[in-house]
From TrEMBL:
GO cellular component assignments: small ribosomal subunit
Matching SMART domains: Ribosomal_S4, S4
Alphabetical UniProt keywords: Ribonucleoprotein, Ribosomal protein, RNA-binding, rRNA-binding
Name of the protein: 30S ribosomal protein S4
UniProt domain Small ribosomal subunit protein uS4 N-terminal: residue ranges: 3-100
Organism: bioreactor metagenome
Length: 211
């Protein structure tokens, strides 16, 4: 399946929740979900009947929501699930943890990009180092103790400077620590489930792939 290239806001509307695909816009009143909530509430008050969704449909929607949240195409998303499924422990948590450990996601979580899409581009263009070595693979899996930092030349780019200023005012997940001034961060631990804000019930995703 090819990567979706249409309007990002349409994906959020399809899932009925914020997927944070548009950077700062998602936190503003311009967010399509925020603007549509009033209309949705009005329709509910009129008593319009809801379409019943099958058990399969519920699981499919949850899987699609998670895939879109991380901005991935199906083949790569499923491949990571297969890795999680072979690990010991809870498959759902393993899956979320692997998704969070992707380098593009970590760059985004540290605040050095306004969206995962932007983070992916920054990584692809070689702007980031992991433990001092250039890594241009967005799917690269970081480990506890890894240091992710912008290249010295890249720190002077207007985009990264601007993102770093915003990052300095934001709270990063507890499993990461950030030095916004240096545009550098460290993975201090692998994320626990309550440190991952993915808006899904991951067990439904596990059940979808297990069918």
């Amino acid at each position: 399946m090819s990567r979706y290239i249409g309007p990002s806001c349409r994906q959020c509307k399809a899932e009925g929740t914020k997927l944070f695909l548009k950077g700062d816009r998602c936190y503003s009143a311009k967010c399509a979900i925020t603007k549509s909530e009033a209309g949705a509430n009005a329709k509910m008050k009129k008593g319009r009947p809801r379409t019943k969704i099958s058990e399969y449909g519920i699981r499919l929607r949850e899987k699609q929501k998670l895939r879109r949240f991380y901005g991935m195409h199906e083949a790569q998303f499923h491949r990571i699930f297969e890795i999680a499924n072979k690990m010991t422990g809870q498959t759902g948590h393993n899956f979320l943890q692997l998704l969070e450990r992707r380098l593009d996601n970590v760059v985004y979580r540290l605040g050095f990009a306004t969206s995962r899409k932007q983070a992916r581009q920054l990584v692809l263009h070689g702007h980031f180092l992991v433990n001092g070595k250039r890594v241009d693979i967005p799917s690269f899996m970081v480990s506890a103790g890894d240091v992710v930092a912008a290249k010295e030349k890249s720190r002077e780019t207007a985009l990264l400077k601007e993102n770093a200023e915003v990052a300095a005012a934001r709270t990063v997940p507890q499993w990461l620590e950030v030095n916004a001034e240096k545009i550098e961060g460290k993975v201090i631990a692998l994320p626990a489930r309550d440190q991952i804000d993915a808006p899904v019930t991951e067990q439904l995703v596990v059940e979808f792939y297990a069918r």
